[in-house]
UniProtKB/TrEMBL annotation:
Domain Cation efflux protein transmembrane: 19-210
Protein name per UniProt: Cation transporter
UniProt keywords, alphabetically: Membrane, Transmembrane, Transmembrane helix, Transport
Top-level taxonomy: Bacteria, Pseudomonadati, Bacteroidota, Bacteroidia, Marinilabiliales
GO molecular function per UniProt: monoatomic cation transmembrane transporter activity
Keyword Transport among UniProt keywords: yes
Length: 305
């Protein structure tokens, strides 16, 4: 199994995860809905439709993966990588709707003083749902880390939200007869957890779409490369990173002596840009500032303007 995971290319992970998710969700929908009809449980039938809605998020994963891999064209010179971020944003909104639905259902349950009654069949179906959905979540989280994909991370949380909702029903089965309010109270707790996960997914997507400041780790890597490429301190500063999914554009400034010829400066810049591209797969553009010893005195190379 480990060897199988190693063979999976990160570019194919969204497709693999999406197809597995669609197949598993349709199968779980059929099982839950059948169990809901047999036991007469409205909660299980509602959870079945929640599971089916996960298939929609998986379709979004596949569409996001497809469009994000399209090459650059005249209208999109930096590629279509941000389609992945848009897909993650859509899934985040879907998670918010799921959380809101949990709040409404839990409120109605508490308001009406309703408890949950389930038959033995519900136990087996819900246990299967919790296990399978958590396995899908773990696979999606692993794929998100390997492919650095926000949309896979978003879909993983969607899988986990369904596993949690099934777990709530299980808790209601075993403890609901002692505490009539338990199902509603746990529903509110889960709604808050899912809502927070949706908030993080939406926040990360929006921040990247709007443009983030480069991390200190990235800046340090770029500075070390500059130090290896040129013996003098170039005082790199004014870092900017623009992310387009798999494609990242990085610009920053370096300082060179004003008496240096244009050809020599050009060769230094080309060499640094090529080294950074080879080491980190970034597309780099450097701007040259004249090095003035009087003005550079006290200059903080960690400064980001």
């Amino acid at each position: 199994m480990k060897n199988l995971f190693k063979k999976l290319d990160k570019s194919n992970l969204p497709y693999v995860e999406g197809m597995l998710s669609i197949i598993a969700n349709i199968l779980l929908f059929a099982l839950k809905y059948w169990a809901g009809i047999v036991t007469g449980s409205i909660a299980i039938m509602a959870d079945a439709w929640h599971t089916l809605s996960d298939s929609l998020s998986s379709v979004i994963v596949l569409l996001g993966a497809k469009f994000s891999k399209k090459p650059a064209d005249k209208e999109h010179p930096f590629g279509h990588g941000r389609a992945d971020l848009i897909a993650a944003f859509v899934i985040g909104i879907m998670l918010l709707l799921v959380a809101f639905d949990f709040v409404l259902q839990s409120y109605d349950t508490l308001k009406n003083g309703e408890g949950s009654m389930f038959g033995p069949l519900a136990i087996y179906v819900m246990i299967a749902s919790v296990i399978l959905k958590e396995l899908l979540a773990q696979f999606a989280f692993w794929g998100a880390r390997k492919a650095e994909s926000k949309v896979l991370k978003a879909d993983a949380w969607h899988h986990r939200s369904d596993a949690i909702s099934s777990l709530i029903i299980l808790i209601g089965i075993f403890l609901g007869k002692y505490f009539w309010w338990l199902d509603g109270a746990l529903g509110l707790v889960v709604a808050l957890l899912i809502g927070y996960a949706a908030y993080e997914i939406i926040r990360d997507s929006i921040y990247t779409l709007l443009g983030e400041s480069p991390s200190a780790e990235i800046i340090e890597k770029l500075k070390r490369t500059c130090e290896r490429c040129y013996p003098e301190n170039l005082h790199p500063h004014h870092f900017h990173v623009h992310s387009y999914g798999d494609h990242n554009e990085i610009t920053f400034h370096i300082c060179l002596p004003p008496e240096m010829s244009i050809r020599e400066a050009h060769e230094i810049v080309d060499y640094i840009e090529n080294q950074i591209t080879e080491e980190y797969a970034y597309s780099v553009t450097l701007h040259i500032d004249p090095l003035d010893e009087v003005e550079i005195e006290g200059f903080d190379s960690n400064e980001i303007v």
